[in-house]
Amino acid sequence: MLVMVGTAGGQNQWTTPVLIDSAGNNPAFYDGGEMAVADSGDIYTTFTAPRSKSITVARSTDGGDMWSKYGYVDAPESLRSPQDIAIDHLGNVWLLWLSTNGGDFDPSYVNLSKSTDSGRIFTTVFRSVAWAGGYFAEKLAVDDQNSIYMLWDDRQFKLTKFQSGDIGRRTDNQIPNDTLAFASTTALTVTKDFVVHCCWVGIYFDSLNNLHEAVYNNRSNDTGITFQARVRVDTTTSPNPLFGANSLPSLAVDSAGVVYVSYTRATMLNYREIRVARSTDLGQSFGPPVVISGPDTAYDSKVCVDSHQGVNILWGAVGRGILHYRSTDEGLSFAPFASFVRIGDRGFKDGKNGFLYATGPNDSGFGFAKTNVALSISDETPAPNTFTLFQNYPNPFNPSTLIRYQLSVESNVSLRIYNLLGQVVGVLFEGVETPGSKSIRWDASGIAGGIYFYKLEAITGSNPSKRLSQVRKALLLK
To answer: Disulfide: which of 7, 46, 99, 317 matches 82 by Cβ 3.0-4.6 Å?
Structure first.
């Protein structure tokens, strides 16, 4: 039995939104709204208010209850649009934004600004003409070495990387692509093991000269230096090319390297679905998507993985407001978690503390809300009373598979891979683990196909001779 812990509004509820900005006019004209959570727990969001000529950066140090607004960014151009915000592990705030004067022949500029004082004062450290003219959604990401990744378009779809946050150590790497053009939204993330994923929408014509939009993913295994060829995320072409656009992707990766992409699929005039596709092989291929929306006109989904490894989708439906669906089985199925109608879904982040955060416009201005995804009695998979090593999935596999195990008490754990001769060919984990359900991904790209065994050993007490172990067989096909 699973019992959900709700927030102030009851079980599975989002809190009443905190108003960050009250503009007194149409909230539909709020621009931006992306959010970032610092290692300290501080929350940042950025937006341009209606009729404003500056970009606002807002910060909360108490979990979103109180907000300070500062960090107004200036530029020679009259129109400014915040694109993304990120916080490195040194506490520096990075802001990516576009600027233009708005004329048909006026150039647009992409700007990267940095604040070293928690967002109060920004200095523009990079500026370049942007080909997209404000229609392409630039994105930011930060890795564990404080390198800054910037996904943008200046006549090429490319990733710019600033090594360790040093603007002088810049590399520009093109994203492989052979579609005709890019649509307006992209997504970017860098995993703990420095795999870079970028998701985007490309436009192409089929053999019958029908126009389509497709969602693609590219990945880099070498910290963004080179990228693999694009992989299509939406696995089916719409039966009606006139209305069948696959668009508005959002991207997240869990701790085991499973990639999740949510997107909107138009199936007919004024009817759209929210779909979620996943990749269990580090983005090399995507399985059939899960359709999570009902008979709605759906829009603007956001996906994130929470601190309990639940996969969360926040999306809008005409007449039903903003809905929150959650998966506890690695994206195989989704169920309604909570709904709220008072703010949009511009920003959606894991608070790293059992809470999910959301930012966006409402009827009064620009707001923030949160919900608690913690479980009162147990996690989604309760703390086990047995020591268990599960069969890997998928199996057979190529080149990666997910290995799960459970611990009843804190243990000193070793998880190793052996060949048929009993030789160790890989060590997936060695160290102390807390009780509960665990998972780790084995990437076997560098070894030959065949039969392998993975063995889990655990010392559960102060006596080293008190050792538990289990072995299972895995088949690697190459």
So the answer is: 46
Dihedral class, residue 164 (left if φ above 0, else alpha if ψ from -120 to 50, else beta): left
Helix/strand/coil for 147? coil
Ramachandran sector of residue 15 (left: φ over 0; alpha: ψ -120 to 50; beta: rest) = beta
pLDDT of amino acid 1: 19
State the DSSP code for 10. Answer: B
Quote the DSSP letter at residue 163: G
Instruction: Say yes or no: domain 388-476 is CATH 2.60.40.2550.
Output: yes
On the CB side of 170, CA atoms within 13 Å amount to 11
Full 3-state SS string of 88-137:
CCCCCEEEEEEEECCCCCCCEEEEEEEECCCCCCCEEEEEEEECCCCCCC
Report pLDDT for 377.
31
Whose tokens are 């190459």? That residue is 478
Please report which helix (H) or strand (E) contains residue 407, including its range: strand 400-407
Residues of the chain with CATH 2.60.40.2550: 388-476
User: Phi and psi for 418 in degrees, rounded to 5?
Assistant: -125, 150
Residue ranges, comma separated, of all CATH 2.120.10.10 domains in the chain are 18-372
Neighbouring CB atoms inside 10 A of 129's CB total 11
Tell me which of 2.120.10.10, 3.40.50.720, 3.40.50.150, 2.30.110.20 is the CATH number of domain 18-372: 2.120.10.10
The gap from C-alpha 179 to its chain's centroid, in whole angstroms, comes to 24
Strand, coil or helix: 208: coil
Distance of CA 380 to the CA centre of its chain: 21
pLDDT at residue 238 in the model: 60
Instruction: Report d(CA 279, CA 399) in Å as an integer.
Output: 12
Q: How many C-beta atoms surround the C-beta of residue 304 within 10 A?
A: 22
Could you tell me which of 154, 120, 141 has the C-alpha nearest to residue 252? 141
Exposure b/e, 348-364, CB count within 10 A at least 16 = b: bbbbeebbbbbbbbbee
Q: Collapse the DSSP code of 250 into the 3-class scheme (helix H, G, I; strand E, B; otherwise coil) and give the result.
A: strand
Return averaged pLDDT per consecutive 10 residues of the chain, 478 residues in all.
29 82 68 92 90 85 93 83 94 93 82 95 92 66 94 81 96 79 77 88 76 86 88 74 70 88 80 88 89 75 87 85 86 83 79 88 86 56 64 81 85 90 90 84 88 88 70 81
List b or e across 1-37, with b for residues whose CB sees 16 or more CB atoms inside 10 angstroms. eeebeebeeeebbbbebbebbebeeebeebbbbbbbb
